[in-house]
From TrEMBL:
Protein name as it appears in the record: Integration host factor subunit beta
Superkingdom, natural source: Bacteria
CDD domains (UniProt xref): IHF_B (cd13836)
Family membership noted in the UniProt record: Belongs to the bacterial histone-like protein family.
Length: 93
């Protein structure tokens, strides 16, 4: 599912909201998750999962096109850990 499909699905299930209002809600939701992660915080949605960041050390990588060795700086990357309820729903036979 892509963002526009999510907006459309929410608009269909909430006919009292305009498409513009639904788009604003979805944008606010994602913007707040990103803002919190940028502050090195954590976002936990019970039953769904938790978003956080993890540190990656600086390393020497390789350019796959040329094979040249390149330095890759240390950075923080987003991490998602699914919640217990989500794991259970995904693994139902």
């Amino acid at each position: 599912m892509i963002r526009s499909e999510l907006v459309q699905q929410l608009a269909e299930t909430n006919p009292e909201l305009s498409l513009r209002e639904v788009e604003e809600i979805v944008s606010t939701f994602f913007d707040e998750i990103v803002r919190r992660l940028a502050e090195n915080g954590r976002v936990e949605l019970r039953g769904f999962g938790a978003f956080s960041t993890r540190a990656r050390d600086a390393r020497t990588g390789r350019n796959p096109r040329t094979g040249e060795m390149v330095d890759v700086d240390a950075k923080r990357v987003p991490y998602f850990k699914p919640g217990k309820e989500m794991r259970q729903r995904l693994n139902v036979a």
